[in-house]
Amino acid sequence: MSNEQILYDVTDWVATVTLNRPDKLNAWTRQMEQEVQHAFESAAADDAVRAIVLTGSGKGFCAGADMSLLSTLSATSGKDGAGSPIRAEDLGSKDGGSGHFRRKHAWLAEIPKPIIAAVNGPAVGLGFVLPLYCDFRLAAETARFSTIFAKRGLVAEYGLAWMLPRIVGLTAATDWLMTSRMVDSAEALRTGLVNRVLPDEGFLAAAQDFARSIATSVSPRSIGIMKKQIYSGQMQDFATAFDYSLDEMAKGFSSEDFKEGVAHFVEKRAPRFTGK
Asked: Of these four, 140, 150, 154, 167, which has the most CB atoms within 10 Å of its CB?
């Protein structure tokens, strides 16, 4: 698939997916959705990719759904997914994931590689939702966040009311959802919405360096299994999660990455993990 609304690059183990409609603050369209899905599926299947960065070009991360898309949905009585080329059952669980997140936009949580949302500017509406299903959220100092849905006569879409309280707590989630107010990067950091705030200057490079540090210092096999544990664990009781961890630990002892994890420590050198 040729890309018209995103950019895709792979360098030094890191794939960077850039929403690329800067004149529209990267407002989301159906075409962009298709291109993003294809890019992530390509990154998931590529052995040369061990971490993925999702960001926006220009001054914004994503301003939410393009207003022309919202106008179309309004004119068609807002039928869920009206005209969407992507079906929920086609998404996610591509690599043995739990299937719990096999839903529109939530499928990011089932990509078996770490995803870093590099929020470089306003992240509003759907642009607020997407980073929640990423594994890390880094924000530029001038980044801003808003759920916005209540100001559009909409509700907490795409699992937002389930996911957001698990990240920032019930008090902050209720505040942000019901007021639709703008949240700055300092508040986002204080409430745990983002992992860290970085300077605007050199922001993307710093986010890519962070992704590269993960890609080169830890086992891709471990990361993939841990990601399943984290997200599947949200649906499991303790005993189930505990027993699953024991099963995976036993398998890990015979993996190449376990042997390399011991060897590089003993030999005092940088690791050379294979993901096997």
From this structure: 140
